[in-house]
Design a protein that fits this description.
CATH architecture: Orthogonal Bundle
Strand content: under 5%
Order of helices and strands: HHHHH
InterPro entries: AcylCoA_DH/ox_N, AcylCoA_DH/ox_N_sf, AcylCoA_DH/oxidase_NM_dom_sf
CATH superfamily: Acyl-CoA dehydrogenase/oxidase, N-terminal domain
Radius of gyration: 13 Å
Protein name: Acyl-CoA dehydrogenase, N-terminal domain
CATH topology: Butyryl-Coa Dehydrogenase, subunit A, domain 1
Number of helices: 5
Distance between the termini: 14 Å
GO molecular function: flavin adenine dinucleotide binding; oxidoreductase activity, acting on the CH-CH group of donors
Number of strands: 0
Oligomer: single chain
Mean pLDDT: 86
Structural class: mainly alpha
Helix content: 40-55%
Length: 87
């Protein structure tokens, strides 16, 4: 595990990991369906898009999260723990 639930952000809990935790039930519940269909469900993609996971390294000035590599990998790790194919 590359993180400790706090992303080196002055000891504060990461809002990015909190977003991943909020999607845990959805992502976990769609794993078998995603495998059977050979792609992520539209519902999972929409939830991840809304959470900002497809723009983690995009600058804030362009509407992204402007996350550093450790933050990005921590989010990917959290999602992979829920469903490897989704992460």
């Amino acid at each position: 595990m590359i993180h400790d639930k706090k992303l080196h952000s002055h000891g504060r809990a990461s809002p990015l990991l909190a977003k991943a935790e909020q999607l845990a039930t959805l992502i976990s519940s769609k794993g078998e369906q995603n495998d059977a269909n050979g792609r992520l469900s539209d519902e999972v993609v929409a939830a991840m898009r809304e959470a900002g996971f497809f723009s983690l390294m995009v600058p804030k000035s362009m509407g992204g999260e402007e996350s550093n590599p450790v933050q990005v990998l921590s989010v990917v790790e959290a999602i992979c723990n829920l469903d490897g194919a989704t992460g």
